[in-house]
Amino acid sequence: GQHAITMARQHRDMSVRASQLEEAVKEKRRELEESHVRGCVVNRTDANQVVGGGVANEANGRLTMRDSSITECIATHSGSGPATGGGLLNQGVAELCASTIEENRAIASSGAALGGGVTNDRFSHLSAISSSISRNLASSGSGQANGGGLRNNGDVDLVASRVDDNQAVSSTSNALGGGVFNDGAGAFLKT
Predict the structure, then answer these.
(1) Looking at residue 16, what is its pLDDT?
(2) Has residue 72 got a pLDDT over 60?
(3) In the 8-state DSSP scheme, what is residue 186?
(4) Strands, E, within 25-140: which ranges?
(5) What is the pLDDT of residues 17-34, one digit of tens each?
(6) What is the Cα–Cα distance from 167 to 67, expressed in whole angstroms?
(7) Considering the entire predicted model, what is its pTM?
């Protein structure tokens, strides 16, 4: 059957427990309602990529966020591999409704830094409705940095949403798309 994570309004700074996320991952469906994922760190030192500092929605997964936030999360790679999706990595279907992705970082020492706030991967779909992707950073010491706020390689719909004050920074290579880097099949923006 379907399993969802639903958190009520009991506490403003309620965090999602790792065991709850693991249980929902097995069912390939996640729902965050009035929940906050904050201060998570994922780090690697080998050549493999680091993905989803706050939340990783895997292929065939479905994530729904309503009145929720992912803040101050970091995907960091101190080796030669890439850091992808500081706040959220979406490889399935994700819907953000009145939610916030802010102050997240994808940081790579020498590999690529992709999607400081959100990475929407190939064959994936992301919808953001009345949501905000703000003050995120994709930063690389010697590799490329793409999509400070959002790196899109799939399909994305941004409706009545804000993408502001994001940065893509690289010391020696290309830094593209401080707000949005679109390398996907389609991007739809509507105010």
Answers:
(1) 44
(2) yes
(3) E
(4) 29-33, 36-38, 41-44, 50-51, 55-57, 62-66, 69-71, 74-77, 83-84, 88-90, 93-97, 100-102, 105-108, 113-114, 118-120, 125-129, 132-134, 137-140
(5) 444 444 544 455 567 777
(6) 24
(7) 0.82
